Amino acid sequence: MIPLFAQSFLFLRHGETAHNRAGIIAGSTDVPLNAEGLAQAQAAAELLAGVQIAAIWSSPQIRARVTAETVAARHGLPVRLLPGLAERNWGIWEEQPYAALVRDMVPPGGEGPGAFQSRVTAALATVTPPFPVLVVGHSGTARVLGALLCPGVELPRFANAVPVLFQREQEEGEAPDWSLRVLGAAELADPLLATYRPR
């Protein structure tokens, strides 16, 4: 089993970029956060300030890395970069409108869905203790996690800089059951999230 998947963990998509705002595919293009994205990252850091996080792992792309560093600063933690968490390479579709994107195809000069999932899964397999962790990445990363852990479940929209809990529950002798919870202040106060209570 991938060590990360032995317990619940938090996921955070990066803050907004100019590409997000304009509806343009970024993919492997290393675009920075815009002013709104920086504010979103700060808001996420405030929201998660009292949450127990032992380590933060992030895509190395600047939009994810800056988001991760903003949260990490509130926890006094370093950011551990995982190149395999970078967003999918959309080849010649990058810098094009979202309407050009076909997720189940291999874009010319880019990554197919299977290759992307394999890359992200291999990267996640290298996440090691301490736990609990926060993984900071991209919408593509989130969809891979959803497909791996919650097959058949309709996934929420992974909004910019909104934390999501991948929650693992397991009865003795049964396979683990995963669910997704989009987190706000009310959800973080829920006693069921005891793993993530303030230190």
TrEMBL record:
Name of this protein: Histidine phosphatase family protein
One Pfam family it belongs to: His_Phos_1
A GO cellular-component term linked to this record: cytosol
Binding, substrate: R13, H14, G15, E16, T17, A18, H19, N20, R63
Annotated source species: Frigidibacter albus
A molecular function GO annotation: fructose-2,6-bisphosphate 2-phosphatase activity
One GO biological process term: negative regulation of glycolytic process
Record SMART domains: PGAM
InterPro entries attached to this UniProt entry: His_Pase_superF_clade-1, His_PPase_superfam, Phosphoglycerate_Mutase
Keywords linked to the UniProt accession: Hydrolase
